[in-house]
């Protein structure tokens, strides 16, 4: 009887392990979407958004008052065939969300937006502000040569949260909600 209990326990533990690994494999990865490269009369612009950036753990932490920051990296290269590509722009943009539980509002700061921080009441509106970049000026068009080939690379990453030392023991789960997208590349001729 004792031996059959151990066998049952072994199958039970193996089943839980399988379900846990399977559940982790089924989790969605954050991806960049809707990447658009366009221009105004004076500037080259980029639009992009991130999907699946807010997991349940990130949402819960933000709603408890833990600030979260997303970093966006945008690079512009002039591709030159057999020669090394020339880096024309290297931008790092940061979005930060903070929840004020007394006022029940979210403040979203976006480093490239002059009207930051934006205050909203809805978490969905705050998530939209956090995950989108609209009309980011990459470079003045005067610095680009007509007829030449260029490449935009973009990537997003959840920045590590820095907390007071005593909270590291309480909020150890924060290391589980890191994400980083792959680099996405768009080639174009100006």
How would you portray this structure in words?
There is one protein chain. By secondary structure, this protein is α+β, with helices and mostly antiparallel strands. It has a single domain, classed as Immunoglobulin-like (Sandwich). Helices cover 24% and strands 41% of the residues. The protein has 4 helices and 9 strands; from the N terminus they run H-E-E-H-E-E-E-E-H-E-E-H-E. The strands form 2 sheets. It has a 6-stranded antiparallel beta sheet with strand order 6-5-4-3-8-9. A 3-stranded antiparallel beta sheet has the order 1-2-7. A hairpin with a 7-residue loop joins strand 5 and strand 6. It is elongated, with a radius of gyration of 22 Å. About 17% of the residues have low confidence.
Question: What topology does this entry show?
Answer:
Blueprint: H1 2-26, E1 31-39, E2 43-51, H2 56-63, E3 68-78, E4 86-100, E5 105-110, E6 118-120, H3 123-131, E7 132-140, E8 149-158, H4 167-170, E9 184-189
Antiparallel strand pairs: 1-2, 2-7, 3-4, 3-8, 4-5, 5-6, 8-9
What string, H for helix and E for strand, traces the elements in order?
HEEHEEEEHEEHE
State which percent range the strand residues make up.
35-45%
Instruction: Give the termini separation.
Output: 77 Å
What is the typical, i.e. mean, pLDDT?
80
Highest CATH level, the class: Mainly Beta
Shape call:
elongated
Class of secondary structure makeup? alpha+beta
| CATH-level-4 superfamily name | Immunoglobulins
The CATH architecture term is: Sandwich
Output the number of helix runs: 4
Radius of gyration: 22 Å
Number of strands: 9
CATH topology term: Immunoglobulin-like
Lateral arrangement of strands in the main beta sheet: 6-5-4-3-8-9
- Poorly predicted residue ranges: 4-27, 168-176
Sketch the major β-sheet.
6 strands, antiparallel
Number of domains: 1
């Amino acid at each position: 009887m004792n031996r059959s209990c151990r066998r049952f326990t072994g199958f039970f533990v193996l089943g839980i392990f399988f379900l846990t690994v399977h559940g982790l494999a089924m989790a969605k990865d954050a991806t960049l979407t809707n990447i658009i490269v366009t221009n105004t009369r004076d500037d080259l612009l980029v639009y992009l958004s991130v999907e699946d950036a807010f997991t349940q753990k990130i949402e819960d932490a933000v709603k408890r008052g833990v600030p979260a920051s997303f970093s966006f990296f945008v690079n512009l290269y002039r591709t030159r065939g057999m020669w090394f590509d020339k880096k024309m722009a290297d931008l790092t943009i940061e979005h930060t969300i903070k929840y004020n539980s007394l006022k029940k509002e979210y403040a979203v700061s976006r480093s490239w937006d002059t009207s930051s921080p934006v205050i909203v009441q809805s978490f969905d509106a705050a998530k939209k502000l956090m995950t989108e970049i609209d009309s980011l000026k990459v470079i003045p068009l005067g610095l680009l040569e007509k007829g030449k080939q260029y490449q935009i690379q973009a990537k997003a990453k959840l920045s590590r949260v820095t907390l007071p030392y005593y909270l590291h023991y309480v909020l150890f789960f924060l290391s589980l909600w890191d994400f980083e997208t792959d680099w996405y590349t768009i080639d174009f001729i100006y």
